[in-house]
Amino acid sequence: MPEPEFPERGSDALADELLSDWLRRAAAATPDAPAIVEQDRNGEDRVTSFRELFEQAASLAMRFVEHGVRKQDRIALVLPKSTDAIVSVFASLLAGAVYVPIHPQWPKERIEATLADCGARLVIEGDGSPPRITDRETGESIPWGAPDIHSDISGADSLPRADAGDPALILFTSGSTGRPKGVVLSHRAVSAFVKWTAREFQINSADRIGCPSPLSFDLSTFDIFNMALGGATCVLVPEHIVWMPRFLVQFVREARITCWYSVPSILAGMLEKGRMAQHDYPGLRVILFAGEVFRGADVARLVAAVPQAVCANLYGPTETNVVTWYRVPRGFDGSQPLPIGQLCPYSTVTVDATSGELLAGGDSLMSGYWNRPEDTQRVFVSLEGKRHYRTGDRVSRAANGNYLFLGRLDRQVKRRGFRIELGEIETALAGREDILEAAAVAVEDEKLGTTIIAFVRARSDGAVTVIEAKAHCARTLPLYIVPDHIVFLDAIPKGSRGKIDYIALSKLAEALDQVAPKNAAPNSAAPNHAPNNGDQDRSPAVHR
Amino acid sequence: MHQTTEIKTAVRQFIAENVLLGIHQTTIEDTTPLVTGGLIDSIGMIGLVSFLETRFKVEFVPREIDVHSLNTLEQIEELIRKKLASQGTGAAGSTQQTR
């Protein structure tokens, strides 16, 4: 079999390549190889070859340009992670535009606000296939499929071309003031990460990559762009089973996944409830995880369950993508926390001597926050003339050179791999008429992991119920940000200067969490007594 | 066979204990949206499904795990009844036990 014509990995001649160039090349090198496999509701596979993917994307890009889409216009993809969504990603990039993935399950008003914030020119949306494409300025629609999908795409060579330093995508993350922040990533930034993973983990055309993260999370740049770069197959994980461990384990086996990339919470579920260790995964050779702390004991179970696989912990916030990594050694016993490891070759980092904060720079760094010059200025610091991002993560460095994650310097938390600003929950709750004040804290639950408890002071006793307050959150926040529990207090504890006493609230939350029954024991009795933190002066009465 | 009210009562109690912590005496109506209403998230869904599987001795298949079929007490009850009915012929007795 002739060697497919993929460029030598890490070749400097490719430094100015665009992400869309990779697809163009893969379509020429291995036109009939499977680019995307998507399972429909009945479990049937829909396979899209590289030729089909490129033709569909190029033909759509040409329609965008004919319609008047210009270089660097934003194209919002309010779509589940589907073949159509990936076609839309590459169509946007081939047109020189920027794609903005927005999770379709976000509340309507958040989607609308995000569309307005990024000034999206086009919106691509809809549950079914094909999706609808609408011009947000004129209301006109653009047809998804050309009359003949194999129509002439020779014009694809004259499509507008972005520069490698231009934005390729914008990812909106939780913002502490309640407004999501758009992280702008250039072709070059994504390319640095993807090329490194391809080289380090030898990702090639025989690989079948599984990555359950939606397009709106940075983890998804791994599968869709490694597919294009190395001619690998992107095997889409059906969205409805992502959090169903038993089915997910079955999927990984049956879909013959060779490379996996997800948040640790999903793997932890597969190990525990999915009984991952009971099966063999002969082809599974790489397991990468990122997004939150993976407990040492769970990592040990993972390496024991899939002994032949290379397991690695990748670290970095959305703003920098991955900047450090740690290959889990064979026989890792989990008695020590897992380090975040050593630098990726394209990264530079410094630890702030006073605060211990990790400052990260290098090729994968974001261009800035969309339309938020002050925030951008605030998070960047110049070191030796180069921009570095203040991660807000406290780290230390072990004698062997590995970095260790110690915690956060602010009120950002990770729950199930999702990044959440507690302030955003407070803003959302306080936005309801009958709620006067809200304060959210996170506690670590032995069984359930990070659990968020929001304390609320209502206008009057019974003015709002837990169900109403939760429903209010669900209307304004993505479901992954909604607090686990809402507890009503007569008064939110305050310090001497009138600031919310989060330490007291954390203690109260821990006490509450201790008495709360867990899902594992559904028949256990409900707690009979509200907790009392023992400090009568400040102990607020919990409504019953 | 489980009565209509019995299924709803069991699920209602499960949610009251696990999601609402039993602290608040609020009512979960038959049509209160559990998932889209922010009461149950992805992890809560795992707990709910495994509770339903244990309690009613049924087994779910991937395509049944859907926000639209498990979003309200009414929908859950309908799904469980359907599953019990389809199992009933094959494995009588054990699947119809109530606790």
Oligomer: heterodimer
CATH C-level class of chain B is Mainly Alpha
Hey, which two chains have the biggest interface? Answer: A-B, 45 and 36 residues
Output the structural class of chain A. Answer: alpha/beta
Number of helices of chain B: 3
At the third CATH level, what is the topology name of the domain at 421-515 in chain A? GMP Synthetase, Chain A, domain 3
Strand content of chain A: 25-35%
Q: How is the biggest beta sheet of chain A arranged?
A: 9 strands, mixed
Q: How far from one another are the termini of chain B?
A: 12 Å
Count of helical segments of chain A? 13
Largest sheet of chain B: none
The helix/strand series of chain B, from N terminus to C terminus, equals HHH
Mean pLDDT of chain A: 90
Structural class of chain B: mainly alpha
Based on the structure given, which CATH architecture of chain B is correct? Orthogonal Bundle
> Which consecutive residue ranges of chain A, at least 5 long each, have pLDDT under 50?
519-544
Residue share in β-strands of chain B: under 5%
pLDDT average of chain B, as an integer?
A: 79
- Main CATH class of the domain at 421-515 in chain A: Alpha Beta
Top keywords for this entry?
heterodimer, A: alpha/beta, GMP Synthetase, Chain A, domain 3, 9-stranded mixed β-sheet, 5-stranded mixed β-sheet, globular, B: 99 residues, mainly alpha, Non-ribosomal Peptide Synthetase Peptidyl Carrier Protein, Chain A, 0% strand
What's a concise summary of this model?
The complex is a heterodimer of chains A (544) and B (99). Chain A is of the alpha/beta class.
Characterize the structure shown.
The complex is a heterodimer of chains A (544) and B (99). Chain A has 544 residues and is an alpha/beta fold. Chain A has helices at 19-29, 50-67, 83-94, 108-118, 187-200, 220-230, 245-254, 264-272, 296-305, 373-379, 422-430, 466-476, 502-515; strands at residues 34-39, 45-49, 74-78, 98-101, 122-125, 132-135, 141-142, 167-173, 181-186, 208-210, 233-235, 259-262, 286-290, 310-315, 324-327, 342-343, 347-351, 357-362, 368-369, 380-383, 386-397, 403-408, 412-415, 418-421, 435-445, 449-458, 485-488. Helix content of chain A is 27%, strand content 25%. The termini of chain A are far apart. In chain A, 51% of the residues are buried. Chain B is an all-alpha fold and 99 residues long. Chain B has one domain (4-86): Non-ribosomal Peptide Synthetase Peptidyl Carrier Protein, Chain A. Helices cover 46% and strands 0% of the residues of chain B.
